[in-house]
Write a structure and sequence with these properties.
single chain, mainly beta, Porin
């Protein structure tokens, strides 16, 4: 109740913040976003965290860029905090990262994009990234913190004929990551180093045929232990191929993406742990249609498969690396239960736009485990015997967004009902026997 009261009071005051920042000088641009969130969960699906919890979080983002000729200097500051975390709590670096310069980069244009000929752009330094479908590398917006990297990125395009992206990035490890530091919001600069790195390239054809675009990609991820940080020593190569037709009123849309992941991984965090071969798969398929009538409703059917570990001497659990969650599945935050690991999902999604200020979404998914002997998605609930079956249940996910002040203040409500199936209701380390209920209330001001 105290967290909800805090949310209500701060939402009432939040429009005043829109007048704080001055306009940027010529050649420069400064923008900011403050988001206040209250979220609560009952009968958590994840093991090892409190069954019931509520949290109030505040996220402030300030972005600044200065452009002169082909050069761009840019930076982004994230300040992500939990205002009233209980003890114990599911709080993690997904929610807290105080006063962090997640971006500090130099950009260089190569060529002239306005003339629709060969064009390139180089980005050096700290940066966020959204690559292709965003299922392996994404700038997460729903989560209170984001994924950020330090390194180099090259984008090349020949008008709308083809485009290529190459990258070499060192993921930033969000700090602090201890319970006391997270609770107090201690400010510690995030760490990056060559002990964890991801690199690769993607290539796309925006007009492969008709309205259909296609892209392929290769991603290499490597990590190794540090004296203060043990890892599973993942060495993973992920190959991707995708076809997509974007949503448009009066037209059918769709997407098919397939990923194959191979490499090696240690069987535990122990320094001398044996390494085993990795072979995993992921597939996503969607077909939808958007009507031209009032509210422009769009109805789609979506399916996902992410392999799980079958405990057969190798490792078969797909790793989504730094991929997004909200757009395909459900919220992160206190819920954070469903993602691309040991998962099969299938169901409809309905999206409507009643007005320019309101949009809504409802998604219903049937959930199964790909492997009955592996942990389901990110719940950490597992039955090594496989006797609890593969039925994880039904997930209903809804969202409503309303621009209370157009382009300035947006209100959002998210709700999830996870009707647990046999597996989540009977596995030995299950979090709760009852269905999971999650609610998130958000207010975002832009200036």
């Amino acid at each position: 109740m105290r967290g909800l009261l805090t949310f209500t009071v701060l939402v009432a005051a939040v429009p005043a913040y829109g007048q704080v920042l001055p306009r940027a000088p010529e050649g420069g641009d400064v923008s900011a976003n403050i988001r206040l969130r209250y979220e609560t969960i009952r009968d958590q699906a994840r093991a090892g965290v409190p069954v019931d919890e509520a949290s109030t979080q505040l996220r402030t983002i300030v972005r600044a860029t200065y452009r002169r000729g082909p050069l761009t200097l840019g930076g982004t500051l994230f300040d992500s905090r939990a205002l009233d975390a209980p003890r114990p709590s599911a709080l993690s670096t997904n929610e807290v990262n105080g006063f962090e310069p997640v971006e500090a980069f130099l950009g260089l244009d190569l060529g002239d994009a306005a003339r629709k000929r060969l064009y390139g752009h180089v980005t050096l330094g700290r940066q966020t990234a959204d690559l292709r479908s965003r299922r392996l590398i994404a700038n997460d917006d729903y989560r209170n913190t984001t994924n950020a990297f330090t390194g180099a990125r090259l984008d090349l395009a020949d008008g709308d004929r083809w485009n290529v992206t190459a990258f070499y990035l060192l993921p930033q490890q969000r700090l602090p990551d201890d319970a006391a530091g997270l609770r107090t919001g201690r400010v510690v600069l995030d760490r990056e180093g060559f002990d964890t790195r991801i690199w690769g390239a993607t290539a796309g054809l925006p007009r492969l045929f008709g309205r259909v675009a296609g892209d392929i990609g290769a991603y290499r991820f490597e990590e190794r232990d540090r004296p203060d940080h043990a890892t599973r020593n993942r060495h993973l190569t992920t190959l991707t191929a995708r076809l997509v037709a974007p949503a448009s009123p009066g037209k059918t849309d769709g997407e098919v993406e397939i990923m194959r992941q191979t490499g090696t991984i240690a069987v535990s965090l122990a320094p001398t742990a044996a390494r085993v071969p990795v072979e995993t798969w992921f597939a996503h398929a969607r077909i939808g249609y958007q009507w031209t009538r009032a509210w422009t409703p769009r109805l789609a059917v979506e399916g996902d498969y992410a392999s799980g570990d079958r405990r057969n001497g190798g490792y078969g659990r797909f790793d989504t690396l730094y991929g997004m969650r909200r757009a395909d599945f459900s919220p992160a935050g206190l819920y954070n239960a469903v993602t691309r690991s040991n998962l099969i999902s299938l169901g409809p999604r309905l999206e409507v736009t009643p007005s320019r200020r309101v949009d809504a979404m409802l998604s219903v998914k049937k959930l199964w485990l790909a492997s009955a002997r592996d942990a389901f998605a990110t719940t950490s609930v597992v039955d090594p015997t496989g006797q609890s079956g593969r039925d994880a249940g039904w997930q209903s996910d809804a969202r409503v967004r309303f621009w209370a002040v157009p382009k300035r203040l947006q209100l959002e409500a998210d709700g999830v009902w996870l009707a647990k199936g046999r597996f989540l209701a009977s596995a030995l380390n299950r979090a709760s026997d009852h269905d999971t209920l999650y609610l998130s209330l958000n207010a975002s001001v832009f200036f």
